[in-house]
């Protein structure tokens, strides 16, 4: 049996999206994160000095970003 796509089209093409760039991420180069986010037309939020585990190291900033995204789309 072939694997089917989850959706007919990617949601980021028609819905607002946000991207969080961890400025000190050593697992994923922040420049690569920025490139993908720009390509998707996302609102980019960068946290300087944040590691790859940004939700652990910067929980308030991550929560603020989520709240801002919810407010912008509600």
Automatic annotation (TrEMBL):
<dbReference type="Pfam" id="PF12697">
    <property type="entry name" value="Abhydrolase_6"/>
</dbReference>
<dbReference type="InterPro" id="IPR052897">
    <property type="entry name" value="Sec-Metab_Biosynth_Hydrolase"/>
</dbReference>
<dbReference type="GO" id="GO:0003824">
    <property type="term" value="F:catalytic activity"/>
</dbReference>
<feature type="domain" description="AB hydrolase-1">
    <location>
        <begin position="6"/>
        <end position="64"/>
    </location>
</feature>
<protein>
    <recommendedName>
        <fullName>AB hydrolase-1 domain-containing protein</fullName>
    </recommendedName>
</protein>
<dbReference type="InterPro" id="IPR029058">
    <property type="entry name" value="AB_hydrolase_fold"/>
</dbReference>
<dbReference type="InterPro" id="IPR000073">
    <property type="entry name" value="AB_hydrolase_1"/>
</dbReference>
């Amino acid at each position: 049996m072939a694997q089917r796509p989850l959706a007919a089209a990617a949601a980021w093409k028609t819905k607002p999206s946000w991207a969080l760039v961890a400025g000190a991420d050593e697992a994923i180069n922040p420049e690569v994160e920025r490139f993908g986010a720009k390509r998707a037309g996302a609102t980019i939020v960068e946290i300087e000095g944040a590691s790859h585990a940004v939700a652990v190291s910067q929980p308030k900033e991550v929560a603020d970003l989520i709240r801002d995204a919810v407010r912008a789309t509600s």
